[in-house]
Amino acid sequence: QVQLVESGGGLVQPGGSLSLSCGASGLILRDYAVTWHRQAPGKERELVALISTSGSVTDYAHSVKGRFTISRDNAKNTVYLQMDSLKPEDTAVYYCKVNGKQGPIWGQGTQVTVSS
Asked: Which one of 69, 83, 88, 111 is at 20 to 30 Å from 62 when CA atoms are compared?
């Protein structure tokens, strides 16, 4: 069974940091570009960051550029999202995604809450 699993979410104060992980089972993650998305209550899901198969190409939404870092460890079949200088507006459920051969594959999401 092909599955993506996010972890690392939680409650953090403004200005704090969190590191999210996206692991895969039934899927060799290094064969795919990976994207992180987020969805806040009442808002549409938005693209946050992407990384190429090798990790040599990354890109970010304007709202997180300079604060978030996407990376991957292909030996561990895992993609990471390091989030620094977090703001209340970063509060959302965060999802990782790959475009599989038969369509998009999403994880179940992990909640990130930024609040004092």
From this structure: 111
